[in-house]
Amino acid sequence: MKSLARAGSLLLIALFLASPAGCTSGDSGGSSSPGVKRMIFVTNGQSPYWDACRAGLQAAEKELKLGDRGLKVEMEVNDGTPKGQIEKLRQYATQRDIVAVGISVTDAANVAIADEMRNLQSKGIHVVACDADVDRATLADARFGFIGTDNIAAGRELGVAIKNLRPAGGEMVTFVGRVGSQNAIDRRNGVVAGAGGKFKLVDNMGDDMNRSRALENVRNAITNHPQAKTLVGLWSYNGPRIVDVLVERNCRAEYTAVTFDAEPTSITSMEQSLLDCMMVQNPYEIGFQSARLMAALCEKNDAIIKEMYPNRGQPGGDIFETGLKLVVPNGATPLKPEMFGKKTEFLTLADFKAWLAKYGLEGS
Questions:
Q1: pLDDT tens profile 83-92
Q2: CB–CB of 327/262 below 8 Å?
Q3: In the chain, is it the N or the C terminus that has fewer CB atoms within a 10 Å radius of its CB?
């Protein structure tokens, strides 16, 4: 009997020593393999934009050898509503294998979302805002930091493009998924500032991430604001909806059409001279750097954290920028590189497509 007990004890010790190392946050749960800890990236909704972000997450998992470190990263797609994100965050709090969450916040000022983010932090789960932040003035404590675009600067650069595409100015309409999202607020304000005094924003139309409503918004804008000849897509799918309506009504020549991001259909539209420019973020880099930061937080790697946030604790020091690209058609355009800031990479469509091909992407 004693020999059996001793053998059982030795077996338990061997199993313990064989367990993989990694971040600790309670026992294993959820869907991952035993001993593997999960880092979750939750989107604000569904869009081809997130395909590039997913590719960045997967590249980070491979290049940073997260599996060897007992970590894996997964993307979960939200349904486009604050309620959906709240429910997901609550679920994450009950899954003991989750050690970090990156979230593209659906509604910047939504206190309930921020409260669930704080709740995760109270359980030792690291939380990072990615792509779309919380309201920094009131809710910044709900996340460690932000990874993504300086959306005010991006909006301003797109506004500068608008000013040079349509020097006479005039009325304009902006279109977006959720008007309360921080990136939507910042982009809209940036566009107005960059376009200057000759332009007047007559409407900012939200669609709650409903593609049919997004299409109808463009139709209504053209009908209700006949003098508004500049149409601006603030979210990735808004540009394609603008193009759909201009083609539908055969009135492209009357309008200046610009958009954030470069969905595959937007790239095709620019090839067909249906878009004047695209202000492109870098969702691939957002995904890669989000995985990198979450792993560093989990493993308490102060060197990487300091590298990414050298001025943390100072105003604006909790923001990691992932860059901007201003993409123009291959042919004639009034837009020139010198019109834009040093942080904005100016690319022809051909050069941009070459960059996409380098990373195996169809859009960005």
A1: 999 999 999 9
A2: yes
A3: N
